[in-house]
Design brief:
Thioredoxin, Thioredoxin-like_sf, 5 helices, 5-stranded mixed sheet, Glutaredoxin, disulfide bond, electron transport
């Protein structure tokens, strides 16, 4: 499966279902260039996962919303809930391991923990 270009216009629809991996990158970033073929290969190997690429130069508002300060940064969603975020290029084996772990999450547990964290955030507002 090809990767999706992520923008503010398609972000919410893209991350709402299934497993979604987002690669935050920029054209001038050498580690991003090295990670790109690893990400593309994983997209081919996992047609059941959505692989999205976000150009931080073009989509600065979204990059700021995620608090991205270093690239590449990888973010994983499962069923609309962010479950992983890490800066730095991953080797292929680590990316495969991450995909397996995200697919294997107990989503009842994740939803419960996410709901609790959202309540805490609202109490501070």
């Amino acid at each position: 499966m090809a990767t999706t270009t992520l923008t503010t216009e398609n972000h919410d629809e893209t991350v709402k279902d299934g497993v979604v991996l987002i690669d935050f990158w920029a054209g001038w970033c050498v580690p991003c260039q090295r990670f790109a073929p690893i990400f593309e290969k994983a997209a081919e190997d996992h047609p059941d996962v959505t692989f999205a690429k976000l150009d931080t130069e073009d989509q600065q508002e979204l990059a700021m919303r995620y608090g991205v300060t270093a690239i590449p940064t990888l973010v994983a969603y499962r069923e609309g809930i962010p479950v992983f975020q890490q800066a730095g290029a991953l080797p292929a084996s680590a990316l495969e391991d991450l995909i397996s772990k995200v697919q294997g999450l107990d989503m009842d547990e994740v939803r419960s923990a996410y709901a609790e964290s959202q309540k805490g955030g609202q109490a501070q507002a």
